[in-house]
Structure formats: C-alpha cells, structure tokens
Specification:
Rossmann fold; five-stranded parallel β-sheet; binds adenosine monophosphate
Length: 190
C-alpha cells in the first residue's frame, strides 16, 4: 500500500499537488482541512467545535483530529493507499497515525515536504483568498499566525519522519507540472 504524507506550510501547494498525485497513483485523499470545512458546512458538532480554531489559524486539538482521521481510514476499505494532506501537524498526531497504521500493517512509505519561502506563501494565500471564501485566508494577521503555528508546532513532524528515513524534500517553487514531476520522481523510487 502506498501511503504518503504530503507536508509543507500553508500555501505550499499541498492541495493542488494532492489532486494530481491521487489521480495518477489512484490514492485516497485524506485532507483534514477539507474534512473540517465539510463538517463546518454541514454544521455538525465537530464542525462547530473546529470552527473557532480554524478561523484564527490555530490547530484543532490532537484527539479530535486523530478520531476524525481514524474514522475516515476505517471507512475507506477499498483504498489502494492514502495521501495525507495537512496531517499529521504535530508529533503527537504523527505517533498516533503510526500506531493506527501499524494495527493494519500499512505503514507510511514516505513524507514528501514542499519547501516554499515565507514571502511567497503569504502572496499565494492572499491571492487564494479572492476565491477560496476561507476566513483564515483573508487577513495578514491570520496568515502570519498560521505560518507561526506551522513553524512552532508542525515543523518538528519533519524530524519525526527524517529519523525514520522517510523524509524527502522538494522545492515548491516553479510550475505546478514541474513540481509534480519532481514529486513523481520521488514516488517512483519508493
Ligand atoms: P488546511 O486546509 O490544511 O490549511 O487547514 C485549515 C485549518 O484546519 C487549520 O488552520 C487548522 O485550524 C485545521 N486543521 C487542519 N488539519 C489539522 C490538523 N492535522 N491538526 C490540527 N488542526 C488542523
């Protein structure tokens, strides 16, 4: 089973590249941000709980995220592999994911990290704000907070996978297809 963690700061292009990867390799997409936005739209209890964290650009508590991902994995029996997008975002989530997948004997094969400079991230998110309708894309203060949260809470997750020998770094600047080609090179060598 091809299980991949697509990693990177907000605005790095994880969503865009995920779409291309899952089409080419027939994977099931698990984007925790998308799942939370769906819950928000449907006004579920989980959506209401997540909203206050999301709107400020803070992380939803680990146990809530982990429970939601576990349910999604369990309901995807037909999956040939998973692409995790925006998850895990803390070392606690990464350890919980390993534990979940170990029970099923389907470990993570690789983390692919998209590396993009901060100024470029801000530009991309502000541009996306014009069409995304996302509250957390709209102002610079929220964007700065998301980047700070990424640096402080999420970046250590890269080391977690580095220690397992699963870390692959890709420079996320260039054309969408050019970056996708570099991702495919990594995947094809796994
Ligand atoms: P994203 O679409 O990945 O940028 O996520 C949007 C927001 O959803 C984040 O700023 C968090 O508030 C929340 N979120 C998404 N994924 C996670 C996660 N793995 N852990 C905690 N919060 C998350």
């Amino acid at each position: 089973m091809l299980n991949i963690v697509l990693f990177g700061p907000p605005g790095a292009g994880k969503g865009t590249q995920s779409e291309k990867i899952l089409k080419k390799y027939h994977l099931t997409h698990i984007s925790t941000g998308d799942l939370f936005r769906l819950h928000k739209q449907e006004n579920t209890e989980l959506g209401q709980l997540a909203q206050k964290y999301m709107d400020e650009g803070n992380l939803v508590p680990d146990e809530v995220v982990i429970r939601m991902v576990e349910a999604k994995i369990n309901s995807s029996q037909e999956a040939k592999g998973f692409i995790f997008d925006g998850f895990p975002r803390t070392v606690g989530q990464a350890a919980a994911l390993d534990e979940m997948l170990a029970k099923k004997n389907i470990p993570i094969k690789a983390m692919i990290a998209l590396d993009v400079e901060e100024e470029e991230l801000k530009k991309r998110i502000l541009n996306r704000a014009k069409t995304s309708g996302r509250v957390d894309d709209q102002d610079e203060e929220k964007i700065n907070n998301r980047i700070r949260v990424y640096r402080e809470e999420t970046l250590p997750v890269a080391d977690y996978y580095r220690q397992q020998g699963k870390f692959h770094d890709i420079h996320g600047i260039g054309t969408i297809d050019g970056i996708f080609d570099k991702i495919c090179e990594v995947i094809d060598q796994l």
